Amino acid sequence: MKGMRVLGIDCGSEITGYGVVEQGSDGHLRHITSGAIKLSLRNTLAMRLSHVFSELRTVIQLHRPDVAAIEDVFYALNAKTALKLGQVRGVALLAASSCGLQVAEYAPLTVKSAVVGYGKAEKQQVQQMVARLLDLPEPPHPSDVADALAIAICHLHTSATLLRQKVGGPR
Hints:
The chain has helices spanning 45-63, 79-98, 108-115, 123-133, 143-167, and strands spanning 4-10, 15-23, 29-38, 67-71, 102-106. The protein is globular, with a radius of gyration of 16 Å. The protein has a single domain (4-167), classed as Ribonuclease H-like superfamily/Ribonuclease H (Nucleotidyltransferase, domain 5). By secondary structure, it is of the alpha/beta class. It has a five-stranded mixed sheet with strand order 3-2-1-4-5. Helix 1 runs parallel beside helix 2, helix 3 (108-115) packs across helix 5 and helix 4 packs across helix 5 (143-167). 49% of the residues lie in helices and 21% in strands. 35% of the residues are buried.
């Protein structure tokens, strides 16, 4: 199995986290880069969306992931929040697809189950497990960055499982 590099994206209306994780042919996970795109509420919505788009494209161009993974739409407390999140998510999808990347989408429960082993894990548990899986000296902060790395790890685990099932190898 050839190694794979995945860009994980955790969309937010104030902070969008990103993380690039690579899994070598030996199965070892390696942290390539991660960070938070912080959006100023003083800027117009159009300016904030443009910032997310350009920052994600820069990450893609610098680190050349093979695929992107993003959290699927989830329940929001109010319609206005859901709409803003949907707009950021749309821009993230556009940034990835405009760079020629396929985009995989995962439900939050799926991501937490893949990384922590429990779909209702707390943010701190996700941060701790991401740090452990990637041999990081400390948990990623803010939690949006840990979530983005978790999404990338989830895609790598899912892809490896699907490949083993397709090939008929050990499960």
